[in-house]
Amino acid sequence: MDIKEIENLIKFVSAQKNVGEVEIEKKDFKLVIRKPAPPAVSTPPQYIHAQAPQLQAPIPPAPALAAAAPVSEEKKAPVAEASNLVTIKSPMIGTFYRSSAPDKPVFVNVGDEVKPGKPVCIIEAMKLFNEIESEVSGKIVKVLVDNATPVEYDQPLFLVEPN
Predict the structure, then answer these.
(1) Distances 145 to 10, 154, 159 between C-alpha atoms, Å
(2) Whole-number Å distance between alpha carbons of 52 and 135
(3) Among 4, 46, 101, 153, whose CB has the most other CB atoms within 10 angstroms?
(4) Beta pairing partners, 30
């Protein structure tokens, strides 16, 4: 499923009054689109999760996202540049989030153990919230991106010491 098909599906769901949710699942791709319930008083936004498919060809980075965000003091801490560290990279362009919602705990912190399939962050792209999962087992050594900042395709997000 390409980006245009996803955009068209989002427009279709938005335009329909009697459709609140659409779920599509293929062997290596799952997409869930939910319309938020009409606010009665004040409700937090609902997050839409989609598992990112393996991309056929890299998407070139958007020029607007090329400027690097300032790095927090926590991330400036020196890390022994070991050649055995594995980098978890962004599979898409979007906005990086460390947790599933502002009031939820972060997926991983420095020192946490990860294994293949464990969510490490969310990248929002076109109002879709994509859970990014670890592909390696090991310990998070460094978080390379600040929360709620733009990321580019193939940008390093985490350094992991494999075990």
Answers:
(1) 29, 13, 11
(2) 13
(3) 153
(4) 25, 51
The whole-number mean pLDDT for each consecutive block of 10 residues of the chain, a chain of 163 residues, reads 76 75 77 68 54 51 47 45 84 95 94 96 93 95 96 96 93
Give, in degrees to the nearest 5, the angle at Cα 34 between 26 and 99: 90
The domain defined by 82-162 folds into OB fold (Dihydrolipoamide Acetyltransferase, E2P) (2.40.50)
Question: How many other CB atoms are found less than 10 A from the CB of residue 94?
Answer: 23
Cβ atoms within 10 Å, residue 79: 14
What does pTM read for this prediction? 0.52
Tell me the one-letter amino acid at 139.
K
Polymer length in residues for the chain? 163
Q: For the chain, which residues make up each domain, given as ranges? A: 1-35, 82-162
